[in-house]
Design a protein that fits this description.
Helix content: 25-40%
Number of domains: 2
Number of helices: 12
Largest sheet: 7 strands, mixed
CATH class of the largest domain: Alpha Beta
Shape: globular
Distance between the termini: 35 Å
Number of strands: 17
Radius of gyration: 23 Å
Length: 426
């Protein structure tokens, strides 16, 4: 496609957009009646219009039935989880019984570490990406300390090469092979929160398995953003939050994938709770943990119904739009955004900005990270003043993430125009 840096061209892309109606399904922040340019779906997705009604249904059941809401009403809470896992399976590429919705991301990562990080002898090392999200770093640090290990010797971080901003796949594979005799776990991010780099999950998974290690992924910035085939790629486990691209609200219920080959392994260590107990005999309240033979067997506590309702409202929008359709639109949106930014950079002789997110479509999703070589904070402030919701990451990166469900090509053009004017200001 021959892109153009004009508002008319951007509007023509919006007019041709087969998914444009879904923008109306979300509540977009406004100032003085003017809708803002919300490019922060990578931080907190917008609220679907139907969310309030779904939450109200839970409150009504609670009011009308009390505890019997678990078994009465149009959507009894006992089986509510079943409404969520099929649409979610289409988003992350899993079998429905390989998914469980529970807790939040970091809690779930700790729970998965109990099951899949089982150090024995010299095989006790963990490989992860450098500059992983801080919660992951803290999780690693405290978990290995629980075993009495020194994080400095157990956790192996892989960095970009000097002068580069992203991590090469061949460097990941080489490091896995280098430590294959002592490697217990590879736990990697699907999309790096800082650079926006999408990693090759299938290749990393195979390399880890070839080395005799388990492999899991933090998909906080990947779920609902990029194509995922967790079952087919043979991933052992994965965890994600649901408040970013999945639009399920602040502190939304987290999601976890556990490959079906582990479901009937009674010897696999885990932290157990009563909601993970076999459904047929759960209410007998007997001693001796018998897990549900699915990913639900890793549940600990009674599900949070209000959070589940919020998640259902968001997942229904995804189901109607179709994940493949969203991915196709996202690719065009990101290509147009890169065109706008590259054109701006070409016109500016000083090269005031640098895109550190890979240009290659197979190595990125919605997020684009822009390294500002000068005037970064001032430019970010100007973007905010002009109604652009973006994100500043120290020391000098602006992150934006136009998402296909509610952002437009015209907003991308407007962002480029605002950015150009901000750069030109003294």
């Amino acid at each position: 496609m021959q892109y153009q840096e004009t508002s008319d061209f951007a509007k023509s892309l919006d007019d041709e957009d087969q998914l444009k109606k879904f923008r109306g399904e979300f509540l977009i922040p406004q100032v003085s009646g003017k809708k803002q340019i919300y490019f922060l779906g990578n931080s907190l997705g917008l609220q679907p219009r139907k969310t309030q009604g779904y939450i109200q249904q839970i409150l009504d059941q609670w009011a009308n039935y009390g505890v019997e809401g678990f078994f009465k009403g149009d959507t009894p809470w006992f089986n509510y989880h079943d409404l969520l896992i099929f649409p979610l399976s289409q988003i992350v590429g899993a079998l429905p019984h390989e998914l469980v919705l529970m807790n939040q991301l970091t809690v779930n990562l700790h729970l998965m570490m109990v099951s899949f990080y089982t150090p024995k002898g010299k095989r006790n090392k963990i490989i992860c990406e450098a500059k992983a999200f801080p919660s992951d770093q803290y999780m690693f640090e405290t978990h290995v300390k629980h075993y009495g290990f020194n994080p400095e010797t157990i956790i192996i971080e892989i960095f970009p090469r000097d002068g580069e901003h992203t991590i090469r796949t061949e460097d990941i594979i080489q490091k896995i092979d280098e430590h294959k005799e002592e490697l217990a776990l590879v736990l990697w991010g699907g999309v790096n929160y800082y650079s926006g780099q999408l990693f090759d999950i299938a290749v990393i998974t195979k390399a880890a398995h070839d080395a005799g290690a388990k492999v899991g992924f933090d998909l906080a910035h990947a779920a609902g953003n990029v194509k995922l085939l967790l079952h087919d790629w043979d991933v052992d486990f994965a965890c994600w939050c649901s408040y970013k691209y999945l639009n399920s609200g602040p502190g939304a219920i987290g999601g976890t994938f556990i490959h079906e080959r582990f479901h009937k392994n009674a010897n696999l260590p885990r932290y157990a709770g009563w909601w993970g107990y076999d459904k047929q005999t759960r209410f007998k309240m007997e001693k001796g943990f018998i897990p549900v033979e699915s990913a639900e067997g890793w549940q600990i506590s009674t599900p949070a119904m209000v959070l589940s309702a919020s998640h259902q409202a968001a997942l229904e929008v995804f189901s109607e739009a179709g994940m493949e359709n969203l991915l196709q639109k996202s690719r065009v949106m990101q290509d147009y955004l890169f065109y706008i930014l590259d054109k701006l950079n070409k016109d500016d002789k000083g090269k005031i900005l640098e895109i550190i997110t890979p240009h290659n479509q197979s190595e990125r999703g919605c997020q684009v990270s822009i390294l500002m070589h000068e005037k970064g904070k001032r430019i970010f402030g100007e973007l905010s003043a002009k109604g652009v919701f973006a994100d500043w990451r120290e020391p000098n990166v602006i992150r934006i993430a136009p998402v296909p469900l509610y952002n437009t090509f015209s907003e991308i053009w407007s962002f480029g125009n605002i950015l150009k004017n901000a750069i030109a200001m003294d």
